């Protein structure tokens, strides 16, 4: 680049050269004594410089090693200056950096560069071209002058860069720099955590904030640039798709002393809203509720986190298929486009996305697998025999009676993924009670035996300490296809010896939609009530309850009923509790063992899980209705409904069009559930424990099998049916009525209906008619329906299929055999 300033400077240099030639000519005629020196110039040449940044990072003062002047105009000088900012790959002209940048020279001969955009970071540099400046004797700088490692002042408080969350119960919050909590010097960890908790509030809907301290949980600084939050009692911090965490001003402080202003952190990760397949079945478009970005290192890495899954046999078997090299994908705003080289076909196909694949613009990431709705494609199927690409699943563990063996059980045959026993012993965290220490490698005398789907860990001597704990890190187990288990495998605390202790609280739970509360104690025998006076218990007087998170406690209502049964206190509330959780206190010494050798310690505990019970069935061919005793407070705080497919082990957050929550009823839209699959539904409401209910999907008419009524005319008309509950193994039952309707020919005469929790068995109804024996036209029909109320024309859904007695017997026999096999 030859700038106008360089042209002028070139003429200047040529003029100076001519002058120097004259001087040199003059010097040659002087008489100089041999060995005499010559006169040095009065000012050194400009060869180096230093830089100082202003307090607001918008000005840089470059001070040269001697007084400096521009060789030409200021415009010429500016054309000879380049800047390289932190993170840039190469320097750019100062004007190209920003057209509003400007320069000046101060009275001390320093160059002042005024920047329109403030400097950031610690690795900025300024380059001034050779010949751009000169000293007082007009001697030009002979080479480029570069000042490096110019550090901007830290004037910004920590900035939120995103979050990582699983199902919403916990969340990691990340920031762009190291910080500390703004607590006094010498504050303990407990005090710091209490301060942090007091500075946080959460709005599940993004608007109505609740102090973090209203619920039990943990809040602490996880490392130098990260916070960690979680709620206890299975409550969700992220209870909706618009959750905001507010951090009060002055909570975080960086190394430069900058304090944060109030921060409203939008932490809900993106969720799938819908999925659409192109007409030719080659392209799938997944729409999220917000703009998404690839959170992996490349498109290929993202592809490895996405795969197809298809139900093969009524939910009992799944075919998984990864994307192949010819498949492509792209992200456009809130949409993921996937092009399949081979056209999709078949039914009950879904797309599974592994956790960590996507983030939103705020940097929020879901650390949990999720699944789309079902893809509507042409009739057919994908590869019916996919390669085994699923890792083994850990089921449970058991301890031998002599405490010398621990057996770990998986869902398929497993092998040592480490190659040899010595490697297998490594990366196993365990607690040794004899040394009161944690270790990460098992002793060499511990042996292992792989046997089918089991690993047997054998100890040279029985475990005899107070308590033990074992956890295998990911990468220890693999199946026959080489799929390695990437989850942790852990025991609970193992206590070979459990010394006798006093009677202590062992947990509590609500039931009956908040009408009943039970408090359990750690006694293997019945407890005695030590509050009896003349045979009358005063136990209720020693129990207080708080419905405002422990701010105030009140005595129980005089109409509440308190009783002691075995090792459990039961409370029946006159007015059901509808809060998500309550705190309860029980005075010490009011309970004892039968011999009064030990008494209870004081109880102060939070009991949550106070959510309504939902009953209903999962249907594949129509909407699924679940009813509950209406709890307005809970219903109005529901922010998210998630469906878990237990066959795949994946979650899907429903969008607003897929469910309706109304007074006493939750309706889930048709198309969410595939026939034969086993599902869990999780309803998250801010301030309440998550509500779970689960069951296997049926066609609505296949919930029950029923025989045609057998009618007798003794003492009126009696109709009898045999009924088989085809959904006998479900956790959720209800929402059914059995109806017997009497006809005289084609004319309905009478009806008998009952809302029962029906099961396999015999049911009958009697109609009191005087001429039963004389009228051969009487017939009875029987139905099992999902609804029967004041409108007899609206019976809801038919839940039963008529079978012959033999067909019913065969169905019952098959069900019993399946149950025995399980």
UniProtKB/TrEMBL annotation:
The reply on keyword Ribosomal protein is no
What UniProt keywords apply to this chain's record, in alphabetical order? Signal
Report the leader peptide range: 1-39
Q: Where is the Heme-binding protein Shr-like Hb-interacting domain?
A: 620-691
Q: Please, which domain of life does this record's source organism belong to?
A: Bacteria
Q: What is this protein called?
A: Heme-binding protein Shr-like Hb-interacting domain-containing protein
UniProt organism field: Paenibacillus borealis
């Amino acid at each position: 680049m030859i700038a106008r300033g360089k042209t002028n400077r070139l003429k200047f240099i040529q003029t100076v050269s001519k002058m120097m030639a004259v001087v040199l000519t003059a010097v040659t005629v002087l008489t100089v004594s041999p060995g005499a020196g010559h006169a040095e110039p009065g000012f050194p040449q400009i060869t180096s410089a230093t830089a100082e940044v202003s307090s607001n990072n918008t000005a840089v003062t470059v001070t040269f090693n001697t007084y400096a002047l521009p060789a030409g105009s200021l415009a010429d000088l500016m054309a000879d200056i380049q800047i390289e900012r932190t993170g840039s790959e190469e320097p750019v002209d100062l004007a190209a950096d920003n057209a509003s940048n400007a320069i000046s020279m101060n009275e001390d001969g320093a160059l002042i560069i005024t920047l329109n955009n403030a400097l950031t970071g610690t690795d900025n540099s300024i380059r001034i071209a050779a010949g751009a400046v000169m000293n007082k004797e007009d001697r030009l700088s002979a080479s480029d002058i570069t000042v490096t490692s110019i550090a901007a002042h830290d004037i910004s408080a920590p900035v939120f860069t995103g979050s990582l969350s699983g199902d919403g119960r916990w969340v990691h919050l990340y920031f762009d720099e190291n910080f500390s909590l703004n607590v006094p010097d010498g504050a303990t960890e407990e005090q710091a955590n209490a301060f942090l908790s007091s500075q946080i509030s959460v709005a599940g809907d993004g608007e109505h904030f609740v102090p973090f301290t209203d619920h039990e949980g943990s809040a602490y600084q996880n490392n130098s640039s990260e916070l960690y939050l979680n709620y206890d009692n299975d409550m969700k911090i992220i209870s909706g798709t618009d959750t905001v965490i507010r951090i009060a001003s002055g909570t975080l402080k960086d190394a430069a002393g900058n304090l944060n202003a109030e921060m409203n952190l939008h932490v809900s990760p993106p969720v799938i809203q819908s999925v659409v397949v192109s007409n030719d079945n080659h392209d799938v478009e997944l729409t999220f509720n917000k703009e998404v970005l690839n959170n992996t290192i490349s498109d290929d890495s993202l592809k490895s986190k996405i795969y197809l899954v298809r139900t093969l046999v009524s939910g009992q078997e799944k075919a998984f298929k990864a994307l192949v090299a010819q498949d492509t994908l792209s992200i456009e705003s809130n949409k993921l486009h996937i092009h399949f080289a081979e056209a999709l076909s078949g039914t009950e196909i879904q797309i599974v996305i592994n956790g960590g694949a996507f983030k939103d613009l705020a940097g929020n990431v879901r650390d949990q697998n999720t699944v789309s709705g079902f893809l509507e494609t042409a009739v057919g199927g994908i590869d019916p025999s996919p390669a085994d690409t699923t890792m083994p699943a850990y089921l449970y563990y058991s301890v031998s009676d002599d405490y010398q063996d621990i057996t770990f059980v998986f869902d398929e045959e497993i092998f040592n993924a480490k190659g040899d026993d010595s490697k297998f012993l490594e990366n196993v965290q365990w607690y040794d009670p004899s040394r009161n220490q944690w270790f990460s490698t098992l002793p060499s005398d511990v042996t292992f035996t792989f046997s089918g789907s089991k690993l047997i860990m054998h100890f040279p001597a029985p475990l005899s300490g107070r308590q033990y704990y074992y956890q295998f890190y990911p990468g220890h187990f693999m199946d026959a296809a080489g799929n390695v288990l990437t989850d942790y495998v852990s025991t609970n605390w193992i206590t070979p010896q459990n010394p006798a202790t006093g009677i202590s609280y062992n947990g509590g739970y609500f039931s009956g939609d908040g009408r009943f509360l039970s408090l359990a104690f750690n006694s293997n025998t019945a407890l005695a009530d030590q509050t009896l006076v003349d045979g009358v218990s005063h136990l209720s007087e020693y129990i207080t309850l708080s419905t405002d998170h422990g701010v105030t406690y009140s005595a129980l209502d005089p109409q509440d009923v308190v009783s002691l049964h075995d090792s459990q206190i039961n409370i029946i509330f006159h007015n059901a509790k509808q809060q998500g959780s309550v705190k309860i206190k029980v005075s010490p010494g009011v309970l004892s063992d039968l011999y009064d050798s030990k008494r209870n310690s004081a109880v102060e505990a939070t009991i949550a899980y106070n959510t309504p019970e939902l009953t209903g069935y999962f249907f594949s061919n129509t909407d699924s209705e679940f009813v509950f005793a209406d709890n307005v407070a809970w219903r109005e705080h529901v922010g998210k409904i998630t469906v878990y497919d237990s066959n795949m082990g994946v979650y899907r957050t429903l969008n607003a069009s897929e469910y309706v929550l109304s007074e006493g009823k939750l309706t889930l839209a048709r198309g969410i559930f595939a026939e034969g699959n086993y599902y869990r539904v999780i309803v998250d409401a801010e301030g309440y424990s998550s509500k779970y209910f689960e069951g296997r999907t049926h066609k609505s008419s296949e919930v029950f099998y029923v025989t045609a009524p057998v009618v007798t005319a003794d003492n009126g008309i009696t109709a009898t049916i045999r009924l088989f509950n085809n959904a006998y193994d479900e956790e959720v039952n209800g929402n059914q009525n059995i109806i017997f309707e009497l006809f005289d020919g084609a004319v309905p005469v009478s009806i008998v209906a009952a809302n029962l929790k029906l099961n396999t068995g015999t049911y009958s109804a009697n109609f009191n008619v005087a001429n039963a024996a004389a009228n051969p036209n009487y017939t009875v029909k029987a139905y099992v329906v999902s609804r029967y109320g004041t409108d007899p024309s609206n019976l809801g859904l038919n839940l039963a299929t008529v079978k012959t007695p033999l067909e019913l017997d065969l169905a019952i026999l098959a069900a019993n055999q399946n149950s025995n096999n399980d």
